[in-house]
Each structure stands twice: as C-alpha cells, then as structure tokens.
C-alpha cells in the first residue's frame, strides 16, 4: 500500500547550458524544476507512494510552468501556495573532466518561497493528509521565517502522528563563513523533531561541533553517529561516503545506523552523467525501505542502487521505479534490454 | 567619420521560449542580452559609430556572458562596471495571431544596475570620451539612485560638450498606477537636459500633464509637441504612431519636429517577426541622421525604414547597416539577393 | 467551485515533423499525447475543474511517458488502466499554404484502448467520482467492444446523476465508405444518453439521415437541430461553421441551441498555427459555460474565443485559462503584454 | 512507363541559417545539396521517371555526403564523376517581410564541376542510357570548358535520339555586367540544340537582343516567343511571369508555346515558404507533360501547380508526386488530410 | 568488381530519444530506418557492392520516408514491394553506465512485411539479379508466412547459383519462452540452405540442442562448431564473443571456421557509442572477405575492425568504407586526421 | 597591467557536425571562427590582455559574422582588413573512440587572407600599438606572399621594440610531401626573428634537419633544443609531448627552455572533449607567464593547466580565465562548484 508523503522546500528553476558549453558560448538553455524537496518527493512517487510538495510559487507563467513540470514528475501540487513574485533560479554550466560544473544563482531570498508570510501555510491540514514528511538543511539556511515554518511544520507532523525525516545537507556557501555556531542551534531544533536523519561524520563535527580523536572517516563515523542518535533521540541515521576517482567515475558507500547497529552497503563505482540530486535519491531509497519495513541490508543496498541510477538520469530529480532499482541491484553491467 | 556614442541603462537577459510555445509546454529557452541602451548603442554601432554602454553587471558567469554577447552586438564594453550580484532578466513567450506575447520579469530592483552605488560611475571620464549620450524613460522608472545617476550623467555630458538624447518610453507597469505626477518631475529633469527627445502626444498629455482640445492624434501632436519643445528648450523631437492592422501587419508613421517645423515620414506597412526594440531602431535612425546632418526628410525616411527592418530581425537589438536600410528605403518588396 | 469531469477515449501519441518539412526530409519528430477525450478534459482542467481521463495504456515506457505528459496537461490519471501492449500513434506533417497537413496512423485497432476487455473498466466507480462525462464520435468508430464500453459508461454516469456530453465528430475515414447506416444506430444510442451534443446540420443529414429542402447551411441548421433535440430529448446542442479564407485565415462561427432557442456567436477570423484539437476547445468552452450557468450569449462567446485561442497553441490540447480567454474576448489585436 | 532522364550541372551545397536569423546571430546551419540540374532531375524522379545527374564531385567526405543526399532525393548517382577537390557552396540567410533573403557564394570556379577536364565525361555512354536531357543557363555561365562540355553533351544526346531541354535562367551576377553579347553566342549554341526551351520575353530581349515596340510583358511575349521558336527551330517554349504582392504572396502565371499556339495557365496566388528551385519545378512539370503527351492545357496547369507546391517545400528541390500535384490542381485551400 | 547482394528482412523505423533522456522526460525523437537486412546490405554497399533489400513497406508517407532513407544508406530499393498498412517501429532510450538502454516495440506482426502475402514476392526474379543473399534469425521468428517466404527465397537463390548466408541471431523475446524446440526446426531449414552461417556455441547448445561436457566458451565452441558444419554441410561459420568490461568498454573477439580450420581474430577493446547493428557489421565484413577471396586471417581481422567501427557510428547501420576499416586495422588510437 | 598583443594569421570558419555523426548522416552544422592566431590572441584576452588580430576577411555576410564572433571571443577587430572574396573553411566530423575525427578543407588558397596584396597591411602602424606579436607555422605554409607578409610583420615588430613569438606547428599536409627542405628556409627566417619559439625535438629533426644519436624523445629534446636556441639566438623555447592512452585520455607534459635551463612540468592526464586549439592554449600560457615575469616552474605549470582546460572547452578557442586555470592547477578532480 502506498504511503502519503510530503516534502517541504523551495522549488527552483534549473537553467542548464546544453552539452558542456559555457554561458558565454551558447545561446540556449534547458530548463526544469527541482529542489531537494521536489527530488525526494518525486523519487518516492516513482517508488509508488503518493507524494505532495508544500511550497510557494508565484502566480505567473513561471509558476504555472513549475506546476506543470512538477506534475509531470509525479507530484501532487495542491498543497503549493501561489503567492509572492519570483521563483528561485540557478544556472548550470556542466563541466567536463578537469573542468568542474559551475552553478550561478539568482536572488533566492526574494523568491515566493523565501518571502512567504510566517503563517501562510496551513501545516495542520497538510499534516493530516500524510504519513511522513521530509525536510532538508538547505531550507534551514534560508532565513528566520522559513526556519520557523520548517520547525512548525515538523512539529505539526509529529503531533498528527507522522514521521519526520531530515537531511542535514549543510552548504557552507548558503550560511556564510564562520556561521557554524549560528547554524547549530537551528540544526538541533530539527534533529530533535526527526525520526530519521541523513548525515555523516562531517556534519557531526562541523555543524554539531562534536569532537573525535580518530583521523579516519570510518572510525569517526563509528564513534560519532551513535552519539548523535543518543543525544537527539533519533531512531535512524543514514548517509554516504563519496570518492571521486581519477577516471571520473565516483565510488559511493552508504551506511544505515538503526537500533544501535551499523549496516554498510557494498561500495558502488560508476560513471556519472548528472551529479545533482543523487543524495536525494539515496534518502528516498532509505525512506522507502523504512516504510516497507525492509531489513537494513536490503534498505541500504536499495538506496545505494537508487543513488547510483540517479547519476545516470538527466536532471536533478530521480526517476527510477522499484523495478529499475532492483535490476540495477542484480546486475553490474548492462547491455540493451530488448 | 564615426561618432563616439554612449548609452546608459540596464542590461537585461532575455530568455525566450522558442517558436510560439508556452513556458508550460517547452523545456528550452533562447537567451540574449538587450535593453534600450544596448539596442540604441548597438544599432548606432552597426551604422558605423563607436558605441559604448555605461552600466553595471555582476562579476559572475552571467555577467561574463552578457559582456561577450554585447561585444558581438558591436558594443565597446570597457565602461561597464562589474559589481553587485544579479542581472535583470525577462522571460518572453511569443504570441501568435489572437494570442499576445507575454513577458515575465525577475526582480530588476535587485540587479547590479539597480543596486549600484550612487557614486559608482565616473561620469566625467565617460563624458570625455564621447560625442553624444542616449537615455531612456525605462531607466528613469527604476529608483531614486538610478534617477540621480542618470541626471548626473546627462549633466556631465552637457558640460563636456556632448549631445543628450532622451526617449520618454513611459511604461505604466514600472511606475505603478496613479504615479504620473511623481514621474513628471523626473521626466522634466531629463527634458531640460536633452537636445533631442523621442515622444509623441500621449507622453505630453499623460506624463507631462499637458492639455488639448483636439481629439485626433495628429492634431494633438501638432499642437503639443511645439509647446514641449518651447517649454523645455528642446531642439529636436521625434516619434512614431503605430497601428496594428487586422492581418497582423503593423503600420508605422514617423515624425520629426525640428527648427519649428514638422516633417512626416511615409506610413510604412509590414509584417512583424520580433516587435521588441523597434522603437530603439527608430531612435537610432534619427540620431544617425542628426549626426550626419541630413535634411529632415531623409532622416525620417531612414529612421522609419530602420524601424521597419528591426521588426524583421530576431531579438531586441537592431542589426541593420546603413546599406541595408537604404535598400529597404528604395524597394518595397524583396526577392532573393543573389 | 470546480466540477469533477471525466472524458472517455483513446490516448494517442502524436509524432510531428518539426516546422513544415516532410517525413522524407527530416530525421526528427516532436511527440506529445492527445485525443479528443484528453483535449476536452485538459481544457476543462485549465478552466479550473478537476478532470479525469478513463482510458487504457500499455504498461511500458510509452505508457509511462503518456501518463507523465497527461499529468503535465493537468489531468488526473488514476482512472487510466494499464493493460494491453500498444499505444495508438499518428504522424503529422504540417502543411504550408497550398500544401495541406498530412496525418498517417499506426494500427489503432491493436492499441491498449481498442483491445481492452469489455468489462475491464469499473464504470460505476468512475461515475461516482464525477459530475459530468464527455464522449466523442471518434471513439464510437473504433469497434464493437469500445462502443459497448462507451454506452455502458454513459449509462452509468446517468444513473449516478452525472451529465453526459457527446461530440458527434463523424470521421468518414474511420467508419469506411457507405457505412452511414451502420454508424447511425450507434450514434443514436449515444444521442439518447446525452444531455449535451456537439454537431451541426451535416451530422443531422449524413449521420442521422435527416432530410431538408433548404440549400444553405444556416437554414438547414435552423430546421434540423431542433428536430434532433426533440427526437433524442437533448437539452443542449452546439457546434460551429468553419470557413477557410483565401489568405489562410479561418473564420469560425459558433451556435448554441438551448431551451428551444438558437444563439449565434460573432464570426471570428484569425490566423491558424495548429488546427488540431480546436473543436475540442469549443466543446470545453460550452461545457464550462453550462457548468457555470452562464447565459447562452456569454457561453457561445466564450467557447468561440476558446476555440480561436486553441488555433494559436502548439499541439492538440487547449491550454488557455479563463483569464486568457476573457482577454481574447475583450480585445481584437494584441501587442506585447509587459 | 517511366522515362530515363538526365540533367547536367553543378551540385551545390546549400548552407542555410535556421529560421530568419542572420549569420552574425546564429551558430547553426542546415545543409542540403541542390542545383538546377539536381532539382529538375529529382522532381522528375518524384514524378515516376528514372533520373540521372551528370556532374563531378570531390572524392572526400563532402562529396560522399552529396552522393548520399542526392540518392535520398531519388537520383541515380552512378554517372557522377569523383574528381577535383571542392564542392560549390552557398550560404542562405532567409529574409522576412521587408528584409530580403541573402545568398553568399564560395568560390564556384574552383569546384570539382567547374575544374573537370574537358574530356572527363563519357557523354556518348551517358546519352545511350537516357531519353531526355536537361540543361540550364546557370551552367552556361561557368567557364569555357563547362560550356564546351554542355554543348558536347547536348549534341551527343541529339545524335543518340534523345530530347534536349534548356532553361535559359540568365543570371546577370554570374556573367558580369555588359556581357549580354558574350553570353548570346553561347545561348544560341544551346537554343539550336534544344527541343524545348524555358524562357520569357526578357530573355529574348536582353540575352538574345531581340527588339519589340510593345511595352507590356504579355504583348512582348506574344510577339517575341514565336520569333525565337522560328529562328532556332524550337518545338516547345514555356515560361512564367511572377508578381510579388503586397501581402508577401506571389502570383505566378505560366505559358506554353507549342505548335505555333500559346496556352496560358490560370494565375495562381499563394504564400511562399522557400522560393529557391520553384522555376525548376515548373520546368519539370512541363517536361513531364510533354513526355506523357498531355494536351497543353493539362501540361501548363500541372506545371503551374507543381511550381506552386515547390514554394511550400523546404529546400531547393521539388518533392511532390503526381498525386500531390493533381490534388493541388483540384483544390484551392486545404484542411488536414486524415 | 562489385558483387550484387540482396538481404531479405523487415525494415524497421527506429525512434530514438536524443542524448540519454527517458521517454518521460523528452519531447523529441530522432528517427532512422534499419533492420538486420538493411544493415548488412548497406554495410556491403559501403564496401563497394551493389546491394538490394527485398522487403515490403506501406504505400504511405512512412513508407516513402523509409525508401528515401534507405537510398541514402546506399541501398537499391527497386525490389521493395509497397503493400500493407504499417511499418514496424521501435523506440530506443539510450542507457548510460549502470542504466541499460531500453527498447519498446510497436506491433511488428501487423507490419507490411509481416502481413505480406505468401506469394507476394517474385523470388526467382530477385535471385536472377544477385550473387549472394543474406538472411537472419530475427526474420525467422516472425510468423509462418514469413518463414515460408524466407526458405523459398533461400531455395531460389541456391537454384539460381547464388550463395546463401544466414545469421542465427536468436532472440528469446521474439520466440517466447520454452520455444527452442519449435525454433529448432526452422533454424535447421535455413542451416541446410546456407553456405555461410553466423553463430557461436550458445546457438549450437540452446537453439540446436547440442550437448557438450566442456564448461568454457572457447572449448565449447571448438567442439560444437565443427559438428554443426558437418551436420548441416556448411562451408563457413563465423561469430564473436563479446565481453562488457567494468569501464563500459567492450571486448570483442571474432572467429572464422572454414575448411575445417578455426581462425581467431585479435581481441579488440573499445569504447561504445551505439551498440545496435554491430553484429551486422561483423557479418558484412566476413561476407566481404569471402567474396574477395581473402585468407581467413585477413577476413577475421577486417570483420572485427568493421564491427569495432560500427560501435562508433550513430544509428544501427554500419557506414564504414574499406579504407576506413583498413585504417582502423592499422592503428590503435587516433588523433585528428587533417 | 594588461599587455597589448597581436596575432597574425588566417581566420577560418569551422563547420562542425553536431555530436559524433558523419556528414553523410546529419543535416546540421555548428559554426564558429578560429585559427591559431585567433586562438592565441583570444586566450590572452581571457587572461586579461588587450588582444588584436591582424588578418583579412571578405566584406560580405560571412566576413561580418566572423567579426561579430571574434569580438565575442574578446578580440579587438579594428586591425582586420576587409578585402578579397572568400573565407577559409573547414568541416569537422568528430570521431569517437576507435574512429578518428576528420577534417575537410575548402580552398584556403582563394581566401581573403591568402590573396591579400603583398603591401595590403600597414605593419608599422600595427606594430606601434602592441607589445608582442604571435606567429604560427601554419601561416608560413600558405604561399610566398603570405610568407613575405609574415616576415615583414615580425621585422616591424622587432623594430618597434615588441617581442616576437613563433609556434612551429609544422603540418606536413599543407607543405606537401618531401618539402622539408623548402620549408626549412622559411622556418629559419622566422626563428631568426623570434624571441620565443614553440617546438619540440621532432621540429628540430624534421623541419630544421638536425641530427641526433639518441632514440628517446626526452634525450633528443635535451640535446637538440639548446642547439636550436644557440643557432638562432632564441631566448625561450617551449613545447609539449603528448601521449594518447588506451582509455582515450591524453597525457601532456610541457617543457620550458630558458636561460640555458630546462624546466619540465608535471605530466597531466585528462579526458578530452575538443582537441583542436589546445596547443594554442599552451602557447598562450607560456606567453602570459613570460609577460608576467613568472619563474619557469610557475609558467610551465600554468601553461600545462591552460592546455588541459582547453581540451574541455567546445570549439578551437581557449576561454579560461587566470582564476579558472589556477583552480585547475590546485585541484585534481572536481565536483560541482556551488
């Protein structure tokens, strides 16, 4: 039976230069609509759940286009408010080999989402429609009003009996330099409301200010994650370690900490077509496994394969079905399916 | 001998849905960079002058792309400041027949141009490099700082011995409803500094608050324009009347008021491919004729043909050479040139 | 308050050669998903209603793509069955001037819709969710099973208290030559179930076999439509007369026969970008007016303008909002909206 | 029964800016391969004949591409020599309304065709394979070697019992100013070998130096064409008068002079998509009618409709079938064929 | 001297989503026309032979487009019948890395080829025009009529003195599960008529039901292929082993069994752009070597390089010349040729 | 402080088939304008210098397009003469894996640049505006007039006190077979005028005819380059060794010989997107380092990274800023910058 899931967050317009040309070279852009909330909710929709996004979009042709594109991604859009004037945008110039991809933002602070009135949303009503809600640290970085909305919504979900998941997703560029202490308070508010958290040892150290004597990632993780779970009463914590290899492939290893026990996925190595949104695919896979009641081994293998496949899909938003992901878990290298 | 000309104004990124699709239907945009200042300066560059634009662009890949595209249009870009964070943008959905084109703006008030510091520009230095400067009423609608910069620049040009032209270009949407009185003061500041003004009787009545007992456009024009010239000591005033015909062709008739005498161009009727920027083409034609010292009849015929051709060019910016325009003046209907 | 509306019919994949090239010249196709049911339901969705489509699509990537695209058009897709193997397709080569557009079909009879089991649909359940249902004569031309499903669905809607609309849409190519008599029985089954019918005098004469001594379309219409309404107990009948003019514009005049009274719309003349689906736009406008309880004059003006705008939209499916259509009713010729 | 037809002439690469952009604006070109010989031969292939082109192409990837594209157009390519180094090219910027299309050539004189050795072709062998051969005045303008080849080929065709057609196609730009007298000798060589000639009164006056006292085109034609036929013993002469109308439509009227009698086609007025190659479509229609033994009225109506349709086809080369043309003869304004 | 070669088989329309997008994401398709018969015949045409395809296409714009595109590929199309209503199609979504490519078929059983009348072809006439004929196991999987046509054609070729080649190409998806026994009879009919067969040990075991005690591919091959050759009196058998490597390159090793002796090619490892049709390239290389009378070592090296190059060509159909292939045999890694 | 730099050389139009299709497959080309002079000058413009190109372009739409595109690349175009009739062009079919890229030229000898009058340029005036001038061996291969212009320009630069750099760039295809001796004289003329030369041991051996007993590239380089520097009094010599690896990556190692001392860069290994113009990027990096007075280690590291990045940029012309290159020097493998 499908679950009813909601994500809260900004809907962004992605404007991408085709191929690997620069903005100075091209005269064409491909656009789509995404955001971590959109990505996780749409990924869960493709896994068979009924997914809502709670957000605000302007009541103009750009907002209309966003609605249409989100519906195409499988999202229910009736909880989107139409208000304010602008949609957040980012321009993407895809890198190649030694040249990294480059992202240029428009003014997100002026977006409909980031200027929505504190009491603009009816979180109680939204909470009554869903089984689980997903939040993200990028949203937490926006501004005080948005932070207050986010905490209020998570609170309402808990009260209504729903589950809360939270992806730390700390982006230094959004918080500004030296603002870890400022961010920490807000992260802690969300951790205290969350049933499930996505993070790794770096979040524990940098954002939450925890300390360790270990030097290796793995050892740091093994020490710190149980402490986080304990301190904030979190049932489930999951995350990944990513390595970028010399041949431009990436290697990804996921972990799941649940009931006091770590489960590590097999490290997967694969070619990368579109990097953005692949963390959201991992999160959606973990959430799906939890909702289905799978054992940790199955959940982490599924989430890792979901993330691997998301690297092969154009655009930010994961689009794989459970059947696609199970096939990818079963095979290593694929020829044509016909 | 080419003249050195400068325009002051915002550089906008135009993001156009290809063909006549809507933003909800397409996933592709074509982008270019324009603005009335860009359009007039680039048009004059194609007529053989050395054209500068004074403006501010962000120091990011969008600003770099704007610089590159403006250089391609023939503009000298060394007087563009790199500062601030954003570039103004507008999305264009082209209409067809009974369905009008639709423009959606991003937040222009946050653009590098509209947030530039009051004393950010060295107008004295810029004025020393040029023979003539062009300004536009769209810029005047932005904010107090920009208005102050605009007046300061026009003043500096006059002091340095250059000529000042000003296109009234009153856009109600930018000023807000009921703000004619507020706008008038600012328009008057510019009119007093201008040697040449682009306007018609509607500007005189609505923006300047002049009154007339005539009901016909032509009679209103004949009565009011000489009064404007007298009141603000303007040597030359020019403008157009546009009619949109039932078969989607447009008819355009230009006039030139100079030395107390009206000269009217032949009404031209033509098919329309891209409407935006065609008023700027007319202005550039008049400025060119004035710089060349042509008789009014030649100037108005040239400017009218320049505007007609601009309707046949993709994008906001007129790209016709003097030879192209003279050919269009000579012939009515064209077969292939080979 | 929005109504809940359903349409029944085949979902077709439209594969169009870009521009006006031929299939022998190009190597690219643009695809979308449509069908008269899709078009009417999506048009009503853009007018603010909650619209379902009842149909069958294969459970393969083409079916998935159809679902995604239909969602983007604003349709609720949960009443679509996934069964069978194929989707109906048609290839469109757009004409230009003296060269007509050309449509080539794949084998529709093998499509999921046309091979669905007689009892495959749960029409009672579907009927319980909606206020009105729309059917079309193209569906009636498919095969005996589909015809039986169509009558069963219309019947179920009536029983559940919903309204039934039916667009005659007689296509000789689908029925085959000399099959008017065969078609008539099936048309009569639907007419007897319909509250609202779309047709004109040609349907009355050719499909229903009625006779008239008049030679002019208008006189034939005035004589025959009341007879049809009487014979089959139809409350509302509406339709259009189309003229193709020498300059490639079309002229469209709509009529509405209701409560024994004819109301004729103003004839509208306009340029044509995409002809397909414009009859569906007219039907959706009439249905909308009826649901809103508008007076016939407003309804026919609205439906005519809706159809006119549909000629300016790429693709088969009308996408105009009520606000777009009201603007088109108010103005004749449009300049840029900015 | 199909006839075997050959055309002799240069194969050109056409490089067209998409849409109506200028070469300074775009960064994309669409390419195809054409030439009057290609156009007439391909048009006759689509009318059911077996068509060869005799020409020379370089033995490089551009020559390979030309061969592949010509085969797609329906031409037999085994009589094309592979020799020399270059292919002739022209760049096309499509005009719009008041802005004419613009053609820029590369150096044709260096092309494989124009540098082929005098005795490079085996005209006797080619003549033995065909029933009719078509030549064109553009080829005659190239250089002495090409002119000698052309006369030699026409001579060989006559000896082998085939028919010779010749389209005067005088292009002042290729011959240079003041070279009518020089051109005349070469035109006369071809006229003496031709069974059928395409021309109108302008060719008689300007190229052949004939004089008339009439001022109207029609009267000049009626006087001069019979004189041309008599002087050079030509059985059949045909041609068109073209008018470009204010609304950008063209009007075309064809004539056929045969057995001492003029037959005029109905003037056709139509919208124009691609102007180049439409004279070749007319010529192919006349040749087809002659080969079929049709009466002049049918032939001229068919050729006129063929030319009209060629204006609606992208690219230089007519692609209509006899069935397409007969439909266009029967109807004036077309809706969708489905 | 070129040979005259024919292939028999279905002509398919390939509709490919550009790049690596999914059908749910894109709105554009690129189309081409292929099929194993087309591929082998076109490959041999590019190697200098005169190649025919015997097949059936509908007499509609899709059939016309197929003919034009096949001519461009170098095929003689006069032996193609125009009959029936539909063309077989398949949609291709290209995979990336861990995500495999995906093929979705339309209903091939309804295609013109698969519904052609048993006696629709004049195989005796076709056989009289050619030196060799190629058949494929995909065709054998279609239906009884097609199987009967295939055997009849191969028989006619043998009677006329031509050579018969047959590529086993067993596709489980087309035959259905558990149908090896059913397929075997039909395969045996073709093997008995074939001079040359393409297969490997898997065909011998699965399709022909042969048994082996060996576990390694190579040993199985060495044991079984000579048995096949003996049992069915086949002069030449050839085939490949393919390995997909972790870095997405493929390794291909070919073998040729002739006159009782095995010759193995060097294993080639290479990047893959378009996988489909590369087996046909191998077959065409072997056929070419046999027709040229090359020694087995040269033939297998040539066929392997031909297949390797086919992986670098967009579309199903190999397009390399003998010179291209010889260059690829000589070099391992290529820089620009200029 | 920026330097003023000029390059002398032909401006070529590059016409590239999109993706990896062949000219026989596609119908679209992407065009840009380049040439070694353009590439080096534009690269230096992106590094902050004021860059001119001295060349000749036709006064037609292709010449206009070249000017506009060169301005977009950052070049000052006022020293370009408009004369002659044609622009040199080359067609590029991009290879993939085992299939090399393929370049086909039009007739460069007829280009405006290669037919410019011996005294057409005012080299003294140009020399007075600049600090350094760059020349290339490709230009030297054109014809006697161009060679004389080149030497005259280099001479004028030296007289005016500017620095001369020369890239040997020996292209056997342009000089013809067996013409090393002929080329040597011309190379020596340039070497004698050059302050800085780009070459490696192969140029010393093949073009300059020097001999060595060493077999290894490195040893040959270490022996011969100092001899070249001594013989022709060259202050600085630099160059690269390129290796193409089995996985299609390239490895590049640069060297700089200055003040009698060799400095070698770290070998860099990277994926290749667009190979053309990457040698020009290396040259521009060395020139920049020299102008800035950097130590050899910094210069060679910078130039190597500049060349590596140029392999990741679409088109011939390097577009990286100093900041881009410094980032590439600092990091090995890049994730998204956001």
UniProtKB/TrEMBL annotation, chains A, B, C, D, E, F:
Family matches, as Gene3D superfamilies: 3.40.1190.20
This protein's record includes keyword Transferase: yes
Entry keyword set: Kinase, Transferase
The keyword Kinase belongs to this UniProt entry's keyword annotation: yes
Chain ranges of the Carbohydrate kinase PfkB domain: 4-317
Pfam families: PfkB
SUPFAM superfamilies assigned to the protein according to its UniProt record, in alphabetical order: Ribokinase-like (SSF53613)
Family: Belongs to the carbohydrate kinase PfkB family.
Record PANTHER family: 2-DEHYDRO-3-DEOXYGLUCONOKINASE_2-DEHYDRO-3-DEOXYGALACTONOKINASE, SUGAR KINASE
Descriptive protein name: 2-dehydro-3-deoxygluconokinase
Species, as recorded: Paenibacillus glycanilyticus
Origin organism lineage: Bacteria, Bacillati, Bacillota, Bacilli, Bacillales
Gene: kdgK_2
């Amino acid at each position: 039976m499908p679950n009813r899931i909601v994500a809260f967050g900004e809907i962004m317009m992605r404007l991408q230069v085709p191929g690997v040309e620069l903005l100075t070279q091209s005269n064409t852009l491909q656009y789509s609509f995404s955001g971590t909330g959109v990505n996780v909710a749409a990924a869960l929709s493709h896994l068979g759940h009924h997914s809502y996004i709670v957000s605000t979009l302007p009541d103009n042709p750009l907002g209309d286009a966003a609605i249409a594109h989100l519906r195409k991604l499988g999202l229910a859009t009736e909880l989107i408010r139409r208000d304010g004037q602008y949609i957040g945008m980012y321009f993407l110039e895809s890198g190649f080999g030694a040249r990294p991809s480059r992202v240029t933002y428009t003014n997100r602070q002026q977006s409909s989402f980031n200027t929505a009135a504190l009491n603009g949303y009816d979180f109680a009503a939204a909470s009554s429609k869903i089984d689980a809600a997903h939040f993200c640290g990028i949203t937490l970085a926006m501004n005080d009003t948005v932070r207050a909305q986010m905490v209020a919504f998570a609170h309402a979900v808990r009260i209504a009996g729903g589950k809360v998941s939270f992806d730390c997703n700390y982006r230094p560029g959004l918080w500004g330099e030296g603002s870890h202490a400022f961010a920490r308070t807000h992260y802690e508010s969300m951790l205290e409301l969350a049933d499930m958290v996505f993070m790794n040892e770096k979040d524990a150290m940098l954002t939450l200010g925890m300390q360790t004597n270990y030097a290796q990632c793995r050892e740091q993780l093994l020490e710190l994650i149980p402490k986080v779970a304990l301190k904030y009463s979190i049932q489930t914590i999951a995350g990944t370690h990513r390595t970028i290899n010399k041949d431009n492939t990436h290697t990804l290893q996921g972990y799941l900490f649940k009931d006091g026990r770590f489960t590590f996925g097999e490290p997967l190595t694969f070619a990368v077509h579109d990097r953005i949104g692949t963390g959201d695919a991992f999160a959606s896979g973990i959430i799906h496994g939890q909702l289905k009641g799978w054992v940790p081994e199955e959940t982490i293998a599924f989430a890792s394969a979901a993330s691997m496949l998301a690297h092969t899909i154009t655009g930010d938003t994961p689009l794989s079905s459970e059947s696609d992901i199970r096939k990818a878990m079963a095979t290593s290298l694929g020829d044509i399916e016909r």
